[in-house]
Amino acid sequence: MSPRELPLLLVRHAVAEDSHVLGDEARALTSEGRAAFRHHARRLARLTPLTGIVTSPLVRAVQTAELLAEAFGLSSVEVHPALLPRKGAHKRILKLARQLGPGWALVGHNPSLERAGALALEGEELPDKLRKGMALALRPLSGGGYTLTWWASPGRPIRRPGDSRR
């Protein structure tokens, strides 16, 4: 697979605890969320190779990114503030995605990842809600936009545009 054929993955963090005594930033993955995402990440690794992984600095996203790196055989993840769930994050996420290019996974949060996906598809509606642990595979187009290649959530079948089931 040539680098240009590699997708960009937008990955929402896996299922995390509802609260943490140290605040939202410290919320970790639940043991069930960790187990489900580990299995899911292995399935994703069979679909496409990755060049690298960039993640939000929040604990739940870093833990998700580390499980992804393990499944893809990557030795590290990079933490980037563009993936923090703040106002205007969707624009920063898409800018970072364009800088990194195809073959990267960006791990973050909703609603910013969902909005970044819609912005990448140039306003085209996403086919599904971006569930926890879900990965969207976007292929870059020559004009600067993206097209949706497939999407997958833990415990659900991999879906592609044109699939008849919703």
Automatic annotation (TrEMBL):
Pfam families: His_Phos_1. InterPro entries: His_Pase_superF_clade-1, His_PPase_superfam. SMART domains: PGAM. CDD domains: HP_PGM_like (cd07067). This is Histidine phosphatase. It comes from Pyxidicoccus fallax. The lineage of its organism: Bacteria, Pseudomonadati, Myxococcota, Myxococcia, Myxococcales.
